[in-house]
Specification:
Oligomer: heterodimer
Strand order of the largest sheet of chain A: 1-16-17-15-14-12
CATH class of the domain at 439-607 in chain A: Alpha Beta
Number of strands of chain B: 5
Helix content of chain B: 40-55%
Number of domains of chain B: 1
Structural class of chain A: alpha+beta
CATH class of chain B: Alpha Beta
Largest interface: A-B, 25 and 22 residues
Structural class of chain B: alpha/beta
CATH topology of chain B: Rossmann fold
CATH architecture of chain B: 3-Layer(aba) Sandwich
CATH superfamily of chain B: Response regulator
Chain lengths: ~625, ~130
């Protein structure tokens, strides 16, 4: 794998390390910033809204649940009041004689049931506890009630609504009894409430799939049949405290835990619902309300999940949307940040590359200034040396007494001085060329022709050393603005170096190709050789002035520096890739003139090779 | 053939002295001065065929001296010989009528050739 160096390459090899290390940190910071600025507030607002909405909706739902129970209680209470009033009205407005008449009693019974099948039977009972008249489906005329609990209660209280009991008819029922005392005559009007009607009345509450409503008395005995477990007159699986007259709503786990249904918890009401239900999510919701007459407890029970099912569903959707949004923001943040960091990295590299190029150009410019100064200052002493040399030579010629050996030796030394002065002069000329202080006239240059001319010059030298030069020219290349002679010097340097790179090898090859890159409107020339290559440490210094790997006296180290300077002056760019022992490849990139100049260049090509071009860009 | 009368103008004294000796020995009528003002004065007083003029000198530089020399002696041929050669200054020199422009160091033989060519042109022009 060939290694590459140029000003851009230095960017990759030196500068970017620090940046590379800092980009993951930058990415983390950006993502963290996005999380702190967007995800956390979203989660915070989302969860606060969720909790408030849950509490609010649950408290509203619980309140609704409780209102429903209250409404149901009022209906049941009204029923009892109305039925009690009915019986009282009949008892107080009719005489015993009238009521003892079975036909009259039957007529009254039917009138009482006209609004609905409220009553199962109706009877008039004397103070001895025996029926004086009876209308109903049961055979109770000969029954003695004097020892029954309800008889004693009504005799004591005047009006009595019983709990559900079996009685003589061996069926669960309850009665409303009114004591009537008129003209020293005491009797009781007793009616039995139609049990099924009561059950249907109680169950007017919407029960759903899991709900049930029932009545229990103060002893915890079912006064209506529960929907699922138990039957009327069974003992409920929870104890009921004494009558409080209050109502409430609680959350509970299985019904057996309903044992905590006591006075203390029954007053928890909506505050309890608001905080406890929203957080603990009990299995069941139980709402209760005490009836005053009779002192029964109306209980409505439903699964928590059913009561709050819709709310929970909405809450679940809210949470899913919230967390999906969070995930989406995170994903987008990571990708967007990654893209952004990548763009920053690219920009940094470009900036670093430009900076390196600037530094390289600046370095070379400084060296150029110095070189020009040195070259000029050296020229004068060299001129003096040459003239002194000539003076000595003249004096030697005039001197007759010198031996021929001495003269020969002196002439040889003087020639050596001439030769070394010539060498110095060559170096100073190169330095001046490198400094590029003179404004060169630019012309349109055909790169193929320029390369071909140089190849023609060096072909023999190369072949004598076993090196084959081949060219691969793209035909119809647009011409560039540049300095033809300087450009030939560039190719001369590169190809000469390529030939020299084969020292120690018996054979080798040099391949020169030209290409037009239409996309970027530029021309590329590559000079590749199979020579000894350039070592890693030397690769980045090849364009530095005075850097050479050739033996002392064989290279000034200015060839590539001058080439670099010339190409930069033409607005171009040179880079090198190399692998030690395998070869080296130089790539020269030249910008093409703008389209209008292309056209002019094409026209000018017809006229001849020496037409002037617009000034080449100076770097 | 008549040898040209030469004027050397260069502030580099060792160089000027050596050149004076060398050219004199070769039969040239050579004078030397070390600054531009002296050169302008001496051409007023004496006739010269060719001036070897340095470019960078204290006081008036070579280009300025050339301009004034050409005003005084339009047919005087001037060869600019400088250690500070550049295309710009060479172009300036040629525009002002210099015969040639060359850089130091230069072999004596090469310089003589340029002197001869300049002198021949002067002869032709006269």
């Amino acid at each position: 794998m060939l290694q590459q160096t140029d000003t851009a390459k230095e960017t990759h090899s030196r500068g970017p390390d620090l940046h590379t290390r800092s980009y993951p940190k930058l990415l983390r910071r950006f993502v963290l910033g996005a999380v702190i600025c967007s995800v956390l507030p979203l989660l915070l607002v989302g969860w606060i809204s969720y909790l408030y909405y849950s509490q609010f909706s649950m408290s509203r739902m619980a309140a609704y649940f409780q209102r429903t129970v209250e409404y149901n209680r009022k209906i049941v209470e009204s029923f009892f009041e109305e039925r009690t009033s009915d019986i009282k009205l009949v008892a107080y407005t009719h005489s015993l004689d009238f009521l003892k008449d079975t036909s009259n009693l039957s007529q009254i019974f039917h009138m009482l049931n006209r609004g609905g099948s409220f009553f199962t039977d109706l009877g008039v009972i004397g103070k001895d506890g025996k029926h004086m008249a009876y209308i109903g489906p049961y055979d109770l005329m000969d029954k003695d009630y004097s020892q029954t609990f309800w008889f004693k209660e009504v005799m004591a209280k005047g009006v009595y609504v019983s709990d559900v009991f079996w009685g003589y008819r061996k069926e669960p029922h309850f009665i409303i009894a009114v004591l009537c005392v008129k003209d020293d005559t005491t009797w009781i009007l007793r009616a039995t409430i139609y049990q099924e009607f009561l059950s249907s009345l109680v169950e007017t509450t919407g029960l759903g799939k899991t709900g049930e409503v029932f009545l229990v008395n103060r002893e915890g005995v079912y006064q209506t049949s529960p929907r699922f477990k138990g039957a009327i007159l069974d003992r409920a699986p929870f104890p009921v405290e004494s009558f409080t007259g209050e109502s409430g709503i609680i959350g509970t786990d299985p019904i057996t835990d309903f044992g905590s249904f006591d006075r203390d918890r029954s007053v928890f009401s909506t505050d309890f619902i608001k905080y406890d239900l929203a957080l603990s999510h009990p299995k069941e919701i139980v709402a209760y309300s005490w009836l005053k007459h009779p002192q029964w407890l109306l209980v409505v029970k439903q699964d928590f999940s059913e009561v709050f099912g819709d709310i929970n569903h909405v809450n679940t959707i809210i949470l899913i949307l919230l967390h999906s949004s969070v995930v989406a923001i995170l994903v987008v943040s990571v990708f967007a940040t990654g893209y952004m960091v990548k763009a920053i990295k690219k920009r940094d590299r470009q900036a670093e590359g430009l900076n390196r190029q600037l530094m390289q150009a600046s370095k070379l410019a400084s060296i150029g200034e110095l070189a020009a100064g040195v070259a000029h200052e050296i020229n004068n002493p060299l001129a003096v040396i040459l003239t002194e040399n000539q003076v000595i030579r003249d004096l030697t010629d005039q001197e007759q007494g010198l031996s021929s050996e001495f003269k020969e030796e002196l002439v040889r030394s003087l020639s050596q001085v001439d030769s070394q002065v010539e060498r110095c002069s060559h170096i100073t000329q190169n330095l001046l060329r490198f400094s590029r202080r003179m404004a060169l006239p630019s012309r349109f240059v055909d790169l193929n022709v320029a390369v071909k001319d140089v190849v023609g010059l060096l072909e023999k030298r190369a072949s004598s050393r076993g090196v084959q030069i081949s060219v691969d020219f793209q035909e119809g290349l647009p011409r560039i603005c540049g300095y033809p002679f300087e450009l030939e010097q560039v190719f001369l340097n590169l190809i000469s170096n390529a030939v020299d790179a084969h020292d120690g090898k018996s054979y080798g090859a040099i391949r020169i190709s030209t290409r037009f890159d239409g996309a970027d409107n530029r021309l590329m020339v590559t000079v590749a050789d199979t020579g000894s290559g350039i070592a890693d440490g030397d690769l980045e210094r090849v364009f530095d002035p005075f850097f050479t790997t050739k033996p002392v006296g064989q290279g000034t180290g200015l060839g590539l520096s001058i080439s670099y300077s010339i190409i930069r002056q033409m607005g171009g760019h040179i880079s090198v890739r190399s692998e030690l022992g395998q070869g080296t490849e130089f790539t020269l990139v030249f910008p093409c003139p703008a389209t209008g100049q292309h056209d002019a260049s094409a026209e000018a090509r017809k006229e001849g090779p020496d037409e002037k071009a617009p000034p080449a860009p100076r770097r | 053939m008549k040898k040209p009368r030469l004027l050397l103008v260069d502030d580099e004294i060792p160089f000027t002295t050596n050149l004076l000796k060398l050219l004199s020995r070769r039969g040239y009528d050579v004078s030397a001065v070390y600054d531009g003002d002296s050169a302008l004065r001496i051409v007023q007083e004496h006739e010269f065929d060719v001036v070897i003029l340095d470019q960078n000198m204290p006081g008036k530089d070579g280009i300025t001296v050339l301009r004034e020399l050409k005003k005084k002696r339009p047919h005087l041929e001037v060869v600019i010989l400088t250690g500070y050669g550049s295309i710009d200054s060479a172009l300036d020199g040629f525009e002002l009528g210099a015969y040639d422009y060359t850089t130091k160091p230069i072999q004596l033989g090469d310089l003589e050739a340029k002197i001869r060519q300049a002198f021949q042109r002067k002869m032709l022009r006269e």
